[in-house]
Write a structure and sequence with these properties.
Radius of gyration: 24 Å
Distance between the termini: 46 Å
Mean pLDDT: 90
Number of helices: 11
Helix content: 40-55%
Structural class: alpha/beta
CATH class of the largest domain: Alpha Beta
Bound molecules: magnesium ion
Strand content: 15-25%
CATH architecture of the largest domain: 3-Layer(aba) Sandwich
Strand order of the largest sheet: 9-8-7-6-10
Shape: elongated
């Protein structure tokens, strides 16, 4: 589960460019210190929102109103400025081609979601602009569901958007925010990966810390050994339901099959196995066919 801003795309850069362009659009002279003043105001407002003190409507209405009050600029309507800033933010949102390449490779092995806190009128067009939504199995935007990270309610919706056979400890939340991504993921019992470009955090309880999301390509394909077995979801279900199954498999170019129940699925030396009720184990990548057998059928 990928966070979007400052995880997959450079929000700081897009926001700074959009901020400058909106000043130009309103024929206002931009001073170098304005953006950092805005960042402080915006940060406080999003903080208030996360603590449920204000709504997203308040964010839209007040952040630039407060900025212009602070700058003693009276000629501009903060709400209108906000709308223009958001449309400029869409224009300036870009994703590095290397990120798309990585996601394309990961898609072959993992279910992937985007989990993002943001305003719906801007997050969807920004996601579309990056031409990568087809790579994701689900996209959750906080403003659309009325709950934001790190709330459990947000993660409830996010988890329900992926197959329910995926165990929590097989789900990795990847994001740059200690509060919304990492704490949110940990509270929900998920694995976490912090994107920390400047090594800014000393005490981090995330499972993985990387400087750039691109490092995940090797790391995920190594640490989180992908399951090459297309039957994994079914194996889990049959294991849980104690269903008798016929497993056809290939071993040293010989075809074989076994009828048994699945007791457990486990990983050893980064290879996935199923422990079978007949006392043997089988490597998941040699399974060719898996079919459930009704109680009556197995005695025929
Ligand atoms: Mg982020």
């Amino acid at each position: 589960m990928f966070d979007f801003d400052n995880t997959l795309v450079d929000f700081h850069k897009a926001s700074l460019l959009a901020f400058g362009q909106t000043f130009e659009d309103f024929n206002l002279k931009l001073q170098p210190e304005y953006y950092s003043i805005y960042e402080k105001i915006n940060g406080k407002i999003w903080n208030d929102f996360e603590q449920k003190l204000i709504t997203t409507v308040d964010i839209r209405k007040s952040r630039f109103k407060l900025l212009f009050e602070r700058l003693n600029i009276e000629s501009v309507d903060g709400f209108e400025f906000n709308a223009k800033y958001l449309s400029n933010l869409v224009k300036h949102t870009t994703v590095r081609p290397e990120v798309i390449n990585m996601l394309t490779k990961l898609k072959a092995h993992f279910k992937m979601s985007i989990i993002t806190n943001g305003l719906k009128e801007v997050q969807r067009p920004r996601l579309d602009k990056c031409l990568m939504t087809h790579l994701f199995d689900s996209i959750i935007v906080s403003d659309e569901i009325g709950a934001a990270k790190p709330d459990l309610a947000f993660f409830d919706v996010a988890i329900k958007s992926i197959p329910n056979t995926i165990k929590k400890d097989k789900i990795l939340v990847i994001g740059d925010s200690l509060k919304s991504d990492i704490a949110g993921g940990i509270n929900y019992g998920l694995k976490t990966c912090l994107i920390d470009p400047y090594d800014s955090f000393l005490l981090v309880n995330a499972d993985i810390v990387v400087q750039d999301v691109l490092e995940l390509e090797q790391l995920l394909l190594d640490v989180y050994q992908p399951i090459d077995c297309g039957f994994y979801d079914y194996l889990e279900i049959y294991c849980m339901r104690k269903t008798t199954v016929k497993i056809d498999f290939t071993e040293i170019s010989n075809q074989a099959s076994v009828i048994t129940k699945i007791e457990n699925l486990f990983t050893k030396n980064k290879v996935e196995f199923a422990k079978l009720a007949n006392g043997t184990t089988i490597r998941l990548d040699i399974i060719r066919e898996l079919s459930p057998i009704s109680d009556r059928e197995q005695y025929i």
